Amino acid sequence: MPSNQAERLSEVELDALWTIYEGHSLVIEYPQQTGTDPYAHAIMAVAYEDDEAVAEVAEIALDVAQSLIAAGLLRRSEDGPVLDESSWFDDELGFTVNAEEYVLSDAGTQVIEATADGAGAVGAGDDEDDWDDDEDDWDDDEEDEDDWDVDEEDEDDWSDDEDEDDED
Fold it and tell me: Is 167 a domain residue?
């Protein structure tokens, strides 16, 4: 079932799910001001500057976030890991912001696991041992060394062409 669910996701949705997985959570903010649209972002990192939390975020299209929630791949988190309150007054904006935080559900985690090694994995972490698989392939055919020998005539032609360019 999880792999079927992964197959039903668009590349954008799967990429967004991986982004959320690689970060902490998804936060949807609902600014409480007329004419201001809600927006979603993945919290990638949090730092503290002057006793204030500052988050590094990756924007996630709101419709993509909502489709992941509707598919059951994300679940609402009432207790973090990032937000400690679901509403605050933003001094810079001058109005209140309500927010919802989401983390991967069991189904979301299963999709990540199903796509981690598969060809459909978008944003999957690099396999650190990619080079190990090909390590022994470099020196297997010593008889191929002759293939790299340059014919002396060809070498002279190349040198002559180079010399002609130098004369100009």
Answer: no
Give the gyration radius of the chain's Cα atoms: 27
Round to whole Å and give the CA distance between 100 and 51: 23
Report yes or no: 123 and 53 within 8 Å, Cβ to Cβ: no
Q: Looking at the DSSP assignment, which residues form a beta bridge with residue 58?
A: 42
> Which pLDDT belongs to residue 163?
52
Q: Are 41 and 20 in contact (CB under 8 A)?
A: no
Residue 57's domain comprises 2-125
Query: Has residue 108 been placed in a domain?
Result: yes
Total of domains in the chain: 1
Higher-confidence residue: 85 or 149? Answer: 85
% residues pLDDT > 90 (the chain): 49
Q: Is the confidence at residue 26, as pLDDT, over 80?
A: yes
As a whole number, mean pLDDT of residues 86-96 equals 90
Q: Is residue 154 part of a domain?
A: no
With contact defined as beta carbons under 8 Å apart, do 75 and 103 qualify?
Answer: yes
